[in-house]
Model the fold of this input.
Amino acid sequence: MSSTNGTPRFDYEIHIGAPVARVWHALADGEMTPHYAFGTRFEGRLVKGAPYAFIADGAFRAVDGEILDLQPERRLVMSWRAHWDPAVEHDPPSRVTYELESTSPLTTRLRLTHDQFACDSATHTGSAASWPLMLSSLKTLLESGTPFPAT
Done:
């Protein structure tokens, strides 16, 4: 965790043994996200300005927002409004940026930045605690076909 101008942010980098195209696909494939994103299914289109949501059982929106910017297979920026528990319900939206870079034909560097928190909020605390497990599970899923059992 770090801060920019006094506001918290979370940065994380992971190397995944899969080509950029596979990693990009997995970020927004509603069939794959439940296996690494705490059981939530991505619903939306990767189109600038489009709404999206991560949907849990019972049609519960754990997170939703808007696609703010994208460069296919390189960069995805989305607003992030958390709803996973009452502590986050009144937090303002923040921003998540995924940046993908091919480091070899079969390896991708994924950089995640979660920023634009209004303050050290429940969304910031919960997200910072969850991102490493979620992205490690994505890595394991893409490299072995099996996600971590904890997600």
The CA atoms of residues 79 and 109 lie 22 Å apart. The longest helix spans residues 122-144.
